[in-house]
Write a structure and sequence with these properties.
This protein is 46% helix and 18% strand. The chain is α+β, with helices and mostly antiparallel strands and 185 residues long. The chain has a 4-stranded antiparallel sheet with strand order 3-4-5-6, covered by helices on one side. A two-stranded antiparallel ribbon has the order 1-2. It starts with a helix and ends with a strand.
Length: 185
Amino acid sequence: MEKRVFELVNKRAVENKTKFHTGGEAMERKGFTLIELMIVIAIIIILAAIAIPNYLRMTERAKISAIESDMKAIGTALETYNTDWTQYPDGEWPDCKAELTGATTATLNNANNKTVTGQTGGIVYITPQAITAFETKVGYDSSHTDRISYSVTNGEYKLIATANIGGKTYQFTMLPGGEITVSQS
């Protein structure tokens, strides 16, 4: 008889989702135990420890790719400019961007001059917005003019951009033909 009573009480405890204690009393279980919560938190921490560095590396690679893409667009504009004017823009970066955007401050690409094909100057080879986006990505502004360097030597240009990405300094160098090399310093 005692065995039968124990089986009935145990069956009822299981049906009511209760835990049978040694004192013979059934206690209703509401919520999770501390161990279960600690295991879940540990799993979340492990997943975050894996995911966060991967995310940071991914954003770093995306920023590098964006700068390379902008430099390729500038390289295309430089090559097109060279085709029209039979030379690359003279001067430093501010002079180069004035020539490429057809700004009124341009010395060659202005309304007073014509290209080799007879087209009147003031041609926009790349938009000022594209130039500004590139400058923003590398951190170029009035207090950081050293972030972009442009020069022409022996009829060939060299465009160098320096950017701080993810706490590291990257140097992007582009030569005629649009090949870009990236080095970390």
